[in-house]
């Protein structure tokens, strides 16, 4: 994984970082680098995290009055639930609301309209270096060069996950390449993928010319990535993300000022940076100040290439048990391959150990438990796998919920327990890592998270992003390993400490974290998918077959739409938040070949299964009602893998599972779609 910053401007008086002062080569180019991790940490990364070092005055006030706020909120709720409101009750409500407002009102918000945009204007190159360094704590470089058309500043950081180490930016035939990602092309599985790109660029440009060679190289890459390529000869800058958009990349283009800025991270939460789209590449002609886009689908046609990602859906129905068994076996094999690619390309990172250390963002639910089990199955190919199942819980001031009693905490412990027993004879050590987040910590870090997740800016985005932030961050948690694999779940619950090895001051050093994101989009896991089958007529009606086929077609198209926009809805936000800790997310469910298989081969009725039940209604009597089971085939796979305890586990959004939604008292009526 890497961090990318690239600035192109017509200005000649650019500011250089203080750390490289006095290192000019000839006035038109400059290069500085360091692989001193301690220097990078102390000089840049610590600076980037300084904003989380103290509470604001209003947050201190909230903390000191938290018990009073809870009592006021409870009184207010009782009054609001009163059917007949007397004048005395109305006066009490106004008094309570006034007191809550007095405690929680932040005067600084009054000045936001006058300060909006000022952060971006004042962002220095040192600020960007500090941001980019957080994504790659093993290496940091600064490059500057100038020609007759423009001045360039590049900052590159590297989290070294694949050997041999390769510095960035890479230089080749008047090209400068910055690459952030992981490739799974067969030719580079055993080596450094950035070196592979360099070789491929050379071959394709020699055969097709510079522009066609560069474009063909990019669409030949199989994996998750973002990149910039500066062609100094043709005066062009190419930049973008992979076809799905699994790595963050943002840009700000000022046509009037003739400037372009590209960055893995936004400078602030009020900048004009926007997400690069997942299915487009962009080309900036800096000599003529022109910006154009090319779609992946267009480029594949131009070069007569078969894309890795195919989104042509099947709308057939599967009614045969033998075909169902075949689908489950194929899904198991495809997902196993996706996991294998993503774990075998993590070279052991610790010189004192040959063990593979990775983590899973773990709620204990269906998606991540299947994923964890898949990784355990692949462990037979590794020397030893140390698997951290990281679960986070929030102390919610509004509901007075403890972190240890959140729904995800309870479910994650159950799933970890059964996984530990299921794989007790394998060469994997499964550790449950429990991270409790206090209300004070939430207050301390939320502004940092709001800045990282930008341009996403809703209440729901914050509640999801901050859960990932604490789950992936350098926070102390409780690590548990099951010592007695013969114990039953009931006996374990009764006296769990007797069967555990525990470390209460554990900090996970897994540099790669696996995420179950994508399962809902592939297998119909959201209520909006189920809603497509509302008011479905009875199966004994004449029109039923054509109607169910029509709705299955709508479901197939809805799932493709979800995949097409996942770069904007989830991926950029999650990547920025997690990678700010120098850790990398990997998404086995979002492998291009797996997606293509699920879309084109697995029938819609195996994703959202419709069954019919007789239901008694007081008003309408006995009804014959359609009942939908989301992610049905994934549940069947879980059962076949021996994960029966999660087979029927319902979908629960992370913000409700960890209780990170509506953390503040008085937020009862706040909606997830509300802007922050």
TrEMBL record:
<keyword id="KW-0028">Amino-acid biosynthesis</keyword>
<dbReference type="InterPro" id="IPR029055">
    <property type="entry name" value="Ntn_hydrolases_N"/>
</dbReference>
<dbReference type="Pfam" id="PF00733">
    <property type="entry name" value="Asn_synthase"/>
</dbReference>
<feature type="coiled-coil region">
    <location>
        <begin position="55"/>
        <end position="89"/>
    </location>
</feature>
<feature type="domain" description="Glutamine amidotransferase type-2">
    <location>
        <begin position="167"/>
        <end position="264"/>
    </location>
</feature>
<dbReference type="GO" id="GO:0004066">
    <property type="term" value="F:asparagine synthase (glutamine-hydrolyzing) activity"/>
</dbReference>
<keyword id="KW-0315">Glutamine amidotransferase</keyword>
<dbReference type="Pfam" id="PF13537">
    <property type="entry name" value="GATase_7"/>
</dbReference>
<dbReference type="InterPro" id="IPR001962">
    <property type="entry name" value="Asn_synthase"/>
</dbReference>
<dbReference type="InterPro" id="IPR051857">
    <property type="entry name" value="Asn_synthetase_domain"/>
</dbReference>
<protein>
    <submittedName>
        <fullName>Piso0_002109 protein</fullName>
    </submittedName>
</protein>
<feature type="domain" description="Asparagine synthetase">
    <location>
        <begin position="509"/>
        <end position="663"/>
    </location>
</feature>
<keyword id="KW-0061">Asparagine biosynthesis</keyword>
<keyword id="KW-0175">Coiled coil</keyword>
<dbReference type="GO" id="GO:0006529">
    <property type="term" value="P:asparagine biosynthetic process"/>
</dbReference>
<dbReference type="InterPro" id="IPR017932">
    <property type="entry name" value="GATase_2_dom"/>
</dbReference>
<dbReference type="InterPro" id="IPR014729">
    <property type="entry name" value="Rossmann-like_a/b/a_fold"/>
</dbReference>
